[in-house]
Amino acid sequence: MRPIDEQTVLVTGATSGLGQHLVQRLAAAGATVVAHGRDIQRLHRTREQIRAATGHEVDIIQADLADLAQVHRLADEVLDRYPQLHALVNNAGVGFGAPGAAREVSVDGIELRFAVNHLASYLLARRLADRLVASAPSRIVQVASAGQLALDPDDPFTEHGYDGVTAYRRSKLAQVMASFDLAADLVGTGVSVNAVHPATFMDTAMVREAGQAPVSTVEEGVDVVWWLLTDPDLDRVSGYYFHGSKEAQPDPQADDPAARAWLRRLSDSLITR
Ligand SMILES: NC(=O)c1ccc[n+]([C@@H]2O[C@H](COP(=O)([O-])OP(=O)(O)OC[C@H]3O[C@@H](n4cnc5c(N)ncnc54)[C@H](OP(=O)(O)O)[C@@H]3O)[C@@H](O)[C@H]2O)c1
Fold first, then answer.
1. pLDDT at 268 over 70
2. What's the 247 CA to ligand 1 centre distance in angstroms?
3. What CATH number is given for 4-271 in this structure?
4. pLDDT at site 273
């Protein structure tokens, strides 16, 4: 792998929590950092904070990942602006929501957690894959979660018996399943794809919104993602799910080829422009 100060790294959801701390660390290490956020003011504030803390600049890029047209535009902008891309960290996510909160849908009418946590990261990775291959060695890190629940092919968008925790867990397993498929597609290209549970109940906005007491620091999660991005021993490690820095077994549905094929067909049908 290239030294980090020779890499261009795109991190989604960089205006809060894990993403924000990660881009600060990447900037301090001299990487060309592309910090994605949905809110332009929060992006400017993040850039100012990083400049003040590290003396380094980060590039910013705005897109609401709850809108597939904006995910396409984000990919177009990244491809226009960056001739090289060495890492994609699909970090942006919607958590459990407040206890008892009602079901939400994306701009495209898709259940919100499935849309943002799975579909947007799926589309972005697929759209940027050729650039990552051309820039190899490169890495895709899917920030997933240990909170996983098998998807129901009869109710993929949790229209029945909705609660935010169920929807979140299904979306996070979908992310893991998609990352196994993408890793298989990219074998031999020099692009690795791994999914990770960074740390349990870090002290971030989504955890506070859910009313959960934090049990980990954000730095613990950043350390894990940093390791996946920078450890030279991981150059050929692809298609795994990690719980922290340990290889782990995701929900068994992730190892079911028929379930993965079903999810892939569904995802492809939803991202078609
Ligand atoms: N916290 C934990 O304990 C934990 C555990 C396991 C996995 N994770 C995963 O870690 C990742 C980071 O979460 P976090 O804990 O750092 O939470 P966070 O502080 O709430 O950060 C979530 C990020 O996602 C962005 N985001 C949400 N909806 C978006 C949308 N529609 N379009 C674009 N960006 C959007 C948020 O943007 P704004 O800044 O504009 O709100 C924010 O930057 C998530 O994928 C989460 O599932 C977290």
1. yes
2. 23
3. 3.40.50.720
4. 53
Phi-psi region of 16 (alpha: psi -120 to 50; beta: other; left: phi over 0): beta
CA of 94 to the centre of ligand 1 (A): 6
Residue 17 CA, ligand 1 centroid: distance in Å: 7
Helix axes 121-134, 164-185, angle to 10 degrees: 20
Task: Work out the end-to-end distance of the chain between its first and last CA atoms, rounded to an integer number of angstroms.
Answer: 34
pLDDT in tens, 166-190: 999 999 999 999 999 999 999 999 9
Closest-CA residue, ligand 1 atom 8, reads: 145
Tokens of 205: 């906005």
Does 198 sit behind a cis peptide bond, omega within 30 degrees of 0 on the bond before it?
no
d(CA 92, CA 38): 10
Tens-place pLDDT, residues 143-168: 999 999 999 999 999 999 999 999 99
Q: Which atom of ligand 1 is nearest to the CA of 65?
A: 32
**What pLDDT, on a 0 to 100 scale, did the predictor assign at position 56?**
97
- Compute the average pLDDT of residues 39-45: 98
**Residues 6+ away with beta carbon under 8 Å from 195:** 141, 142, 143, 144, 175, 176, 179, 180, 240, 241, 242, 250
The secondary structure element, H or E, covering residue 87 is: strand 87-90
Confidence of residue 1 (pLDDT cuts 50, 70, 90): confident
Q: Residue whose CA is closest, atom 1 of ligand 1? A: 202
Q: What's the 95 CA to ligand 1 centre distance in angstroms?
A: 7
CA of 7 to the centre of ligand 1 (A): 23
Give residues (CB < 6 A) around ligand 1: 13, 15-19, 37-39, 42, 64-66, 91-95, 116, 143, 145, 197-202, 204-207
- In this structure, the residue with its CA closest to atom 11 of ligand 1 is 91
pTM of the complete model: 0.98
